[in-house]
Design a protein that fits this description.
This protein has one domain (9-134). Helices cover 8% and strands 51% of the residues. It has two helices and nine strands, in the order βββββββββαα. It has helices at 140-143, 148-157, and strands at 9-12, 22-28, 33-40, 44-56, 59-73, 76-85, 91-101, 110-119, 122-129. Strands 1-2-3-4-5-7-8-9 form an eight-stranded antiparallel beta barrel. A hairpin with a 2-residue loop joins strand 4 and strand 5 (59-73). The longest helix is centred in the C-terminal third of the chain and has 10 residues, at 148-157. The radius of gyration is 19 Å and the shape is globular. The chain starts with 8 loop residues before the first strand and ends in an 11-residue tail after the last helix.
Length: 168
């Protein structure tokens, strides 16, 4: 698998969202994993986990592998209501990266990702930052399995089962 280092990072649609009621992000991790996130003004959010590859320069292949839907809030964490694994074929997309893009209404230059086909409802993204990891995913808490020690601690915190506490 080949990964274009110019794609690695967290991308957002901010410069292209002027007047919009929704926004998107896309993350491409160095190991070929990543996700997209779409959020609407009304509080709805969707996160899609993906695998990605660049078999040739300018060609991005993305496979969506899981989906989560929930509602964000300014007052607390996202309330996740749906999670599902997906069985979708990979999709190819043409792309280009411009390290000195400018658009009207946006202050200054930025690194832009232009896509031929939409990813998370957008064809234009700006680089937010290069350093991104799996723990930055908005749905990360759904993806990690708690350790047995964490489960015992949580059960104890709620007054639940503790080792040897009920004889089983």
């Amino acid at each position: 698998m080949a990964y274009d280092p110019d794609l690695i990072g967290l991308w957002h649609t901010g410069p292209y969202d002027l007047g919009a009621m929704e926004t998107s992000e896309a993350a491409f991790l160095p190991d070929g994993g990543g996700w997209t996130e779409w959020s609407g003004f009304g509080g709805s959010t969707e996160v899609v986990g993906l695998r990605w590859d660049c078999p040739t320069p300018g060609r991005l292949v993305v496979q969506e592998v899981w989906y989560a839907h929930g509602y964000w809030s300014n007052d607390g964490p996202t309330r996740w209501e749906k999670f599902a694994f997906l069985d979708r074929p990979p999709e190819a997309n043409a792309y280009s990266v411009n390290p000195a893009a400018r658009i009207p209404g946006w202050n200054g230059r930025f690194t832009a990702l232009a896509l031929r086909e939409h990813i998370a409802f957008s064809r234009g993204y700006a680089l937010r930052r290069r350093d991104v990891g799996a723990a930055d995913c908005p749905a990360y808490s759904l993806l990690i399995a708690p350790s047995p020690a964490d489960l015992l601690r949580q059960a104890g915190d709620r007054g639940g089962w503790t080792p040897g506490g009920d004889g089983t």
